[in-house]
Amino acid sequence: MTDTTISRSIETVLKIVNDISPRIASAYQTTTRNELILVGGAALFSVYNLVQYIKDKSTAKYYLPPRVPFALPLVGHSLYLLWDSNQFIDWCAKKYGEVYEISIMGKIVTVASGLSGQEALKADTDFLSLEEGVIKDVLYLQYAIDKTTFEIGFYVNPVVAKAVISHKKVPRHTEGILKGMDAGFKNLLPATDSFVLKDPNHFFQRLIAHMSVPTLIGKEVGDNATVIESFAAFTADVTDNIPIFMSVPVVFHRFITPYLQSFKRHRVIMSKFIAPVVESRRQAADAAKLKGETYKAEDDFLQGLLEFVKPDGTNYTADQVAQATLLVAFASVHTTATNLAFCAYWIVSRPDIKQAILEEIESVVGKDINTELTYEHFENMPYLDKVIRESVRQGADVLAVGKKCLKTFTFSNGYQVPAGRVVETTNRRLNMGLSANRVDISEMDPLESGSRPPTTASRDYVTFGMGKHLCPGRFFAVLEIKLTIIQLLRQYDITPSTSSPAHPVKLIGGFMATNSSAPIRFTKRKL
After folding, report:
1. Number of folded domains that form the chain
2. Is residue 486 pLDDT above 80, yes or no?
3. Bind-site residues
4. Structural domain span for residue 299
């Protein structure tokens, strides 16, 4: 194309603009405000439908599940979920089957329930990825940790967990957990006979950190207040930023991240206090080897990380191991504290359940609160097992997991999920079946869990995952929860701070479950 041709084209465009500009200005001046709003709304609706049409055309080659109708522009089915998510999901399953598509805030997601939900939970990470889904698209953990830490967290931590905190090895951590718990009670609770905890979640998170740091990270930092606080606060810093990141376009995230909760301070703390422990242990092992002596390694999670051998035959550096403990913190503190809170609030809201647990504790341990707990005590409380299992079961998300499809995934019924789409599973419905709508406090029945322990997964208990994705840290988490409930009830009577107990489970957006945050009254028991 010549310069003359380009010049003529530009002149033609300018002439057209000059011709129509007065008409547009005149129309704008003579149009009422309501007419402008109507035209603008129509234009926006047209653009929205055009975008949806383009998206639908791009997935036309797939055998897609049915799409639930009646979606509203921009918000999709979000208002239905907000109004009554359990009934909406039940209606969708009854009308469209196990797999269907809905729109959440204008974004199409695939929902899987029943056997298809189990398939999604068990799916290989090459197809459905938790890391690329909820971890990066909801929690935005990629802003808090680097690529190597992600690698350790998703591929090394599960291996170490199975070796260090398996069902067979978890009993040996009982003493350390109890020691950390005692320190937590002393540091976190007032010395008065009666008090109200206005922020129980803050207490539960820090109590779990007190128990987890010495047993998972090491005795060397077991009473290090800075490390313990960072362990607990890292989770809160991540979750507190989620609403901000979700309301701001991704392209602007890098500009706002420096002004949000500081992730850097946690990395600095881990490098300052944990990396030297790694170096010290490695030096001690090398020194023992030179002397021909047997090195007695610590039996904790940190030791498993620092000894892990990569495929190339090398170990991770001390600082890489130190940074990886942040994901240990997130997994141990966030999930365990949430499930502990579910249990505590059910106990607070149901005096009959609390009394039954107390009677079981007294029959196994005795009435003397100075009697030391043992793992044998822990194993002989079947009713408390039922309470924990049912509390955790009730706390499942209505729509959960949020795995991103990395390459076309096909369910056994033939329906397909295209790459890039998110798959949500109906975890509460999988857990509760036809009782998913049972939400009244009085309807919670621990006996519905039968005789299965809270660590055993089943088709009606998917809280800890399924198949090869079953949480390897569940034995340690349940041990912490159970010991905490026993010790709390032995030392305190916990009751609602008001005449009306809060419901233990709250729903964010109508489908994401979290625990109550209502204040709890603690009253010391008489010796």
Report:
1. 2
2. yes
3. 471
4. 145-398+436-524
